Amino acid sequence: MQRNLKKKHIAYRCPECAVATVGLVLGLGDEGGLLRIKCECGGSALDITGGGEDKIKISAPCVYCRDSHSYTLAGSVLGRETLTSLSCPFSGMDIVFLGDMEDISPALDKSANELSVIMASLDAEDVRDIQPQDMDEDECPPDPAIFDTINFVVRDLEAEGRVSCPCASGEYRLRFTDDGMQVYCERCGASFNFHARSAAVAEEYLSLDEIKLG
């Protein structure tokens, strides 16, 4: 099945050189189809694959972490008229942007400002200086499968206009909590908690029809 992508673009910031890399999302077909967007420095690449059952999978380098992050999204996200932003599950910062170039450009400007603030606060001269080098056992990140499932639920409902908050900003981010994950509005602070400390429990939220932040 070939999807009409209407010249959608995808962008990420390279964790090696901090330069924004933008690619045109075309030619993604059935399950197993692959697109790779490479940074010109050769230090990183973003992969998009057809996941079957009208899903796509994205593996993206993270400018804030040592590792890449994986995202599973409904294929319908490629037909959205608005920007889809994907965040680092540990810093909460947006690292992937999918949509039209006129929406991606200001989002990249915002991410560059956020990165500059973080680097300045840490007296970092290079973007690699802000990335963790060593982690104690008690600092190991939560199960990434929990994030992938909850992110899928939120982004799928968001694409259908079934995520809402008091200010109706549409700027929703995800973060880990002690007992699972939380989706929250960056503008008004309203939130919704997913009580999921395992991937199996996270999958129970796949049946949600809507999310109302409060």
Question: What tags apply to this protein structure?
Answer:
single chain, 214 residues, alpha+beta, 2 domains, 4-stranded antiparallel β-sheet, 13 strands, disordered N terminus
- Sheet with most strands: 4 strands, antiparallel
Rg over C-alpha atoms, rounded to the nearest angstrom: 17 Å
For the record, give the distance between the C-alpha atoms at the N and C termini, rounded to a whole number: 39 Å
Q: Strand order, main sheet: write it out.
A: 2-1-8-7
The sequence of SSEs as H and E is EEEEEEEEHHEEEEHE
Mean pLDDT figure: 84
The SS-based structural class is alpha+beta
Q: What level of helicity do the residues show?
A: 10-25%
Any overview of this molecule?
The chain has 214 residues and is α+β, with helices and mostly antiparallel strands. The protein folds into two domains: 1-134, no CATH class; 142-214, no CATH class. The chain is built from three helices and 13 strands, in the order ββββββββααββββαβ. A four-stranded antiparallel beta sheet has the order 2-1-8-7. Strands 3-4-5-6 form a four-stranded antiparallel beta sheet. The chain has a three-stranded antiparallel beta sheet with strand order 10-11-12, covered by helices on one side. It is globular and about 45 Å long. Mean pLDDT is 84; it is low at 1-5 and 135-140.
